[in-house]
Amino acid sequence: xxxxxxQQQQEFExxxxxxxxxxxxxxxxxxxxxxxxxxxxxxxxxSNWYLDAAQAAGVDLTRDESREIVYGMPYEEWKTRxxxxxxxxxxxxxxxxxxxx
Length: 101
Description:
Elements: H1 6-26, H2 32-39, H3 43-56, H4 63-71, H5 75-82, H6 88-97
Helix pairs in contact: 2-6, 3-4
Protein backbone atom coordinates (compact mmCIF):
# COMPACT_ATOMS: atom_id res chain seq x y z
CA UNK A 1 0.00 0.00 0.00
CA UNK A 2 1.27 3.45 -0.90
CA UNK A 3 0.88 5.88 1.96
CA UNK A 4 -0.38 9.33 0.94
CA UNK A 5 1.96 12.24 1.48
CA UNK A 6 0.89 15.07 3.79
CA GLN A 7 -0.62 17.15 0.98
CA GLN A 8 -2.62 14.19 -0.32
CA GLN A 9 -3.79 13.34 3.18
CA GLN A 10 -5.08 16.89 3.64
CA GLU A 11 -6.82 16.73 0.26
CA PHE A 12 -8.44 13.38 1.13
CA GLU A 13 -9.54 14.66 4.54
CA UNK A 14 -11.02 17.78 2.93
CA UNK A 15 -12.86 15.64 0.37
CA UNK A 16 -14.23 13.41 3.14
CA UNK A 17 -15.37 16.49 5.08
CA UNK A 18 -17.14 17.90 2.01
CA UNK A 19 -18.83 14.56 1.41
CA UNK A 20 -19.95 14.32 5.05
CA UNK A 21 -21.37 17.86 4.94
CA UNK A 22 -23.19 17.12 1.66
CA UNK A 23 -24.58 13.90 3.13
CA UNK A 24 -25.84 15.69 6.24
CA UNK A 25 -27.47 18.38 4.09
CA UNK A 26 -29.22 15.69 2.04
CA UNK A 27 -30.37 13.91 5.21
CA UNK A 28 -32.19 16.79 6.87
CA UNK A 29 -34.65 14.16 8.13
CA UNK A 30 -31.97 13.00 10.56
CA UNK A 31 -32.24 15.21 13.61
CA UNK A 32 -29.21 16.52 15.49
CA UNK A 33 -30.40 14.88 18.70
CA UNK A 34 -30.43 11.51 16.92
CA UNK A 35 -26.88 12.10 15.69
CA UNK A 36 -25.80 13.03 19.22
CA UNK A 37 -27.49 10.01 20.74
CA UNK A 38 -26.02 7.57 18.23
CA UNK A 39 -22.66 9.06 17.30
CA UNK A 40 -21.83 11.59 20.00
CA UNK A 41 -21.65 14.52 17.57
CA UNK A 42 -24.02 16.50 15.37
CA UNK A 43 -24.03 19.24 12.76
CA UNK A 44 -23.44 21.87 15.46
CA UNK A 45 -20.39 19.98 16.71
CA UNK A 46 -19.04 19.79 13.17
CA SER A 47 -19.55 23.52 12.68
CA ASN A 48 -17.84 24.20 16.02
CA TRP A 49 -14.84 22.09 14.99
CA TYR A 50 -14.69 24.01 11.71
CA LEU A 51 -14.81 27.29 13.63
CA ASP A 52 -12.05 26.13 15.98
CA ALA A 53 -9.82 25.25 13.01
CA ALA A 54 -10.52 28.57 11.28
CA GLN A 55 -9.78 30.57 14.41
CA ALA A 56 -6.60 28.57 15.07
CA ALA A 57 -5.48 29.57 11.58
CA GLY A 58 -6.22 33.22 12.33
CA VAL A 59 -9.36 33.41 10.19
CA ASP A 60 -12.03 35.71 11.58
CA LEU A 61 -15.10 33.51 11.28
CA THR A 62 -18.23 33.68 13.41
CA ARG A 63 -20.25 30.82 14.86
CA ASP A 64 -23.16 31.73 12.58
CA GLU A 65 -20.86 31.67 9.54
CA SER A 66 -19.44 28.27 10.41
CA ARG A 67 -22.94 26.90 10.94
CA GLU A 68 -24.03 28.21 7.56
CA ILE A 69 -21.07 26.40 5.97
CA VAL A 70 -22.22 23.11 7.49
CA TYR A 71 -25.99 23.57 7.18
CA GLY A 72 -25.92 25.19 3.72
CA MET A 73 -28.19 27.97 4.98
CA PRO A 74 -28.53 30.13 8.08
CA TYR A 75 -29.00 27.93 11.14
CA GLU A 76 -32.30 29.54 12.15
CA GLU A 77 -33.69 28.85 8.66
CA TRP A 78 -32.58 25.21 8.86
CA LYS A 79 -34.24 24.84 12.27
CA THR A 80 -37.49 26.32 10.94
CA ARG A 81 -37.49 24.04 7.90
CA UNK A 82 -36.22 20.79 9.37
CA UNK A 83 -35.93 20.62 13.15
CA UNK A 84 -38.68 18.79 15.00
CA UNK A 85 -39.45 18.82 18.70
CA UNK A 86 -37.44 16.09 20.42
CA UNK A 87 -39.47 13.31 21.98
CA UNK A 88 -39.24 12.47 25.66
CA UNK A 89 -37.30 9.32 24.73
CA UNK A 90 -34.81 11.29 22.61
CA UNK A 91 -34.30 13.80 25.42
CA UNK A 92 -33.80 11.00 27.97
CA UNK A 93 -31.27 9.28 25.69
CA UNK A 94 -29.45 12.58 25.24
CA UNK A 95 -29.22 13.15 28.99
CA UNK A 96 -27.92 9.62 29.48
CA UNK A 97 -25.38 9.83 26.64
CA UNK A 98 -24.38 13.49 26.69
CA UNK A 99 -20.65 14.16 26.68
CA UNK A 100 -19.20 14.54 30.15
CA UNK A 101 -16.95 17.58 30.33
